[in-house]
Input
Amino acid sequence: MKLSVNGTKLFFDVVGSSLEPAAKFRQKPTMIVLHGGPGFDHTYLRPWLDPVSEVAQLVYVDERGSGRSARHTREYYQLGIMADDIVALCKTLAIERPIVLGQSFGGFVALRIATRYPDFTSGIVLFDTSPAWTGGYDLDALEQLVGGERGKELREIAYREETGVATEAELKRFELEIMPLYWHQNFKEEALREMFDNPLINMNIASYMMGTLSKEYDLRPHLAEIKVPALVLQGRYDWVTPMLGAEEMARGIPNARLHIFEHSGHMVFMEEPEELVTVLKEWVISLR
Output
């Protein structure tokens, strides 16, 4: 489904009812799910998060410039505008006080919503994400993980990718040699192939926003302003959005809870899916 809001057209898909038949049709909360990238779409998070629909209606959204949503010129790719998009989408759909879950880059948008619209959500889930991108990847961890001269080469490529200046050849090496290291265990080559073979991927927004974020994105000074409960989810071996950022969010947000997945990197939803679903469902229920 597509909806025109805030000068764009956003694609969204809904999983689960908003009512619980087994509980005399009690209203369930709505969870807005925001994907990473930027430039991917919501589909890589499915079916992994779908079971959470037992306790919350899930609304997966393709952010502006991504997936099935409308493309724009670069000046319209800004976190503030993306936050405005989600708020406008919810208002148009009459969704009140949603939970907002953001994975990776989607967490940047979720944090921006929480700081820009402090009374809008009933809670936020910050999932393998970071409150700042001025430090970017943990390049030391990446280099050590790979080792040798190749480790040094991939470190440089990752640095160029995270700052938005990588060449097409370097981006291809990032895809083939670095992206598999997003997993700590249970690497799923077919899932990676699906992500990059997806004809809807938009590398234009990816390169542009990574370069912009590396200079501008830092919400650490505003974490204490977040009023709503926050669930911070972090893979122990995630060098993409490192543990330091998760710990900063858990300390800085007044009502935050940190859950660490001890056997995961950046792809927790594929590495430890059962624990993830359990943690999410229990936290959503605790908000009632």
The chain has one domain: 2-137+201-286. The first helix runs from residue 79 to 92. The chain has a mean pLDDT of 95.
